[in-house]
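> run fold Tektin
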Amino acid sequence: MELVGSTLTATYAHPRPTPSNFLPAISTMASSYKNRFPHYSLTHSLSLPWRPSTYYKVAAITPTLAPFSKSSQGITPSNMLPFVSNRTALFNRYSPDDWYRSNLTNYKDSEASRHNAEKMRVDTSRMIQDKDQQTRKTQTETTKNIGERVNDIVFWKTELNHEIDGMIGETNALTEMKKRLERGLAETEGPLQVAQECLLHREKRMGIDLVHDDVEKQLLTEVDVIHSCQERMRRHVDKAMAQLAADRSAQHEMEKDLSDKQSAHRIDDKCHHLRNTSDGIGYFRGVERFDATVSVPESWAKFTDDNILRSQSERAASSKLRDDIETLLVVTANEMWNQFNRANVAFTNRISETADAKNKIQTHLAKILQEIFDTEMTIEAVRKAIREKGSSLKVAQTRLDERTRRPNVELCRDYAQLR
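> ok
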């Protein structure tokens, strides 16, 4: 595996070559030069008469120090063999050329090792510098990216605050318009009650006066107009309530988004100001492998943009509804007012007609009363005349009665008798 910041040609990236001529280490301890026991002849190599077949052969009796060896107990110095060096007894193991070649090989190996170590130190130093520069560059870029992220959060926070303020103003305006509409709806109950009472009182007319005239038609039309206006007002009140619910829902989503962005802004701003010398920094094992993100920059920006677009759409719908309510109030007021005026005109005309008829009837009544009076006076005069004719009647009847007493042929039906 290639190390970061190094190349595959680095000397420490390859195994160290094995020396072509490996010589075992030669002990230089005192035990290799001194032995209290006599030496034994070693078998010589057939190929190299001057080199033993083995590097050395262990003596049959392990050499030990005399005071501590059990085998030397009871032996006096006079019985001991004189000390003979193994080096003088054995022939030389290596030649001077071998010794020089071994040293030369060690020198070359040491030189190669030092050269490899030096190259490794240079490569390591360069790698440290590269990694240090890369770390500083990465940290600078990360700080810059966090700063840009903070700026993006500030931008969307500003947009959300502006839209929330607009939504609050629109909600308050729609609430006030809804209250006006409800007051207008309540105020229509008065004219409706008046029209219904007029119809009720007109039912008390008697006889020929209980007529289905223009006044009754206008009153019935006024009741229908008021009912129609009330129905339209109630529908717009329901629409206003639904729109207020939608406005508050959009406002709630934006406020929630704004709260999340305030928390994110506080965290990212803290991260943006963190330095290598800052307090509170530490190791968090495995945090780089834990990915708790739920969005990418595009979906993150789209989420807030969708909330703002939804709020703008709801504000536009709310503004249109306010205009519709304002128009409805004007239209319904004009309709009810016009119908009220038409009913009043009908009432005025009917009252005028009734007054004229009443005046005429009163005139005719006065004439009839005068005629009745005159007739009564005539009757009284007739009665007086009748009373005054009583004496004449008596005279006439007395004459007739007296003339009945005329004798025989004198009872003539003469002119005097007929009169």
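The longest helix spans residues 96-187.
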